[in-house]
Amino acid sequence: MIDYSQIHKSNFIQGFNLLELMVTLSISITLMMIAVPSYQSTVQNNQLSGTANDLYSALSFSRNLAINQSSYFTICASVNLQTCSNSTNWATGWIIFKDRDGDTVFEHNGNSTLCETTDDCLIRVWDIQELSTHFTGNTSAITFDLNGLPLTTANFSLYSSNCSGQEKRTISVNSTGRANVTFSNC
Questions:
Q1: Residue 52 in contact with residue 181, Cβ under 8 Å?
Q2: CB 46 within 8 Å of CB 63
Q3: Is the separation of the CB atoms in 171 and 52 below 8 Å?
Q4: Of these four, 5, 42, 115, 168, which has the most CB atoms within 10 Å of its CB?
């Protein structure tokens, strides 16, 4: 009887030689050098889109609250996410509050009871992750009146430090209170 298991066994040692390994490594390194910068650009572009969408949502949310509750609502830039910063730099985040007197100033007496009848009421906080971006507006705060109309129009610019092409985002609030996002050249 013939033992077929012995026929298929060979005496060859399988594996890679040094030349094959070096060629494979050099091709892999070349591909990574091409792919990594492109990936970083994609990640940064997605972060910019997310931040622009967050501000757009916050503006729409503030306007809807003003209409639904027939009250003044303000969105303002904030450094500590508890008070308005009175700065046009929005890169650290912003807050939305019910502005009882419509003066765009967050007034709270500092005690632990929130939303008293004499205080403004903090509604929502947006904290921005540290990005290498430029995020500024032409105003430090925008207040929507009882009808959802802004007391002032606003424009916000958002772009990365290595911006190229049409990666700059501009978020605008017109005189009717509607916000929109447009792309423009850096």
A1: yes
A2: no
A3: yes
A4: 168
